[in-house]
TrEMBL record:
PROSITE patterns: TRYPSIN_DOM
Gene Ontology biological process terms, A to Z: proteolysis
Name of the protein in its database record: Peptidase S1 domain-containing protein
Alphabetically ordered keywords of this record: Disulfide bond
Keyword NAD appears in the UniProt entry: no
Origin superkingdom: Eukaryota
PANTHER family recorded: SERINE PROTEASE HEPSIN, TRANSMEMBRANE PROTEASE SERINE
Annotated Peptidase S1 domain residues: 1-114
Naturally occurring in which organism (per UniProt): Alexandrium catenella
Record flagged with keyword Transport: no
Length: 129
């Protein structure tokens, strides 16, 4: 997020919002359809590796900002919070946010975590192929 040179304001408060997510939400339908012809990143959306969440219009407070990249998208599953996404990029308001789908990288996350735990913090994580 902080590498985005277009970002001129960084919030100093941690915020949270309830946003629609899931394959049946309007935002998922929008992203899976490739967005709109006027959206430059529409062709970059991958149903297998990404998910959409958020609103089409409304308050900016309910939309991730340019400094929120890397932040979590959580879902309440079986009585506990599960991280299902990592904030990646946006079509910009009033369009939904695009998140990296954690489940698509679960094996890499598990293997890398085991390696780092076994080797200590001296080892850099392997790159995903």
């Amino acid at each position: 997020g902080t590498t985005d040179t277009a970002c001129h304001h960084y919030d100093t408060f941690l915020r949270e919002a309830n946003v629609p997510q899931g394959d049946s939400s309007a935002s998922a339908t929008f992203c899976q359809a490739g967005g709109s012809l006027r959206l430059s990143k529409a062709e970059d959306f991958s149903v297998q590796r990404q998910l959409c969440a958020g609103y089409f219009a409304g308050s900016e407070e309910l939309h991730a900002s340019c400094a929120d990249s890397g932040g979590p998208l959580l879902a309440w599953v079986n009585e506990h919070w599960v991280q299902v996404g990592i904030d990646s990029w946006s079509y910009k308001p009033p369009y939904p946010e695009v998140y990296t789908k954690v489940s698509a990288y679960r094996d890499w996350i598990t293997n890398t975590s085991k390696l780092l735990k076994a080797e200590g913090s001296r080892v850099s994580p392997p790159r995903k192929k």
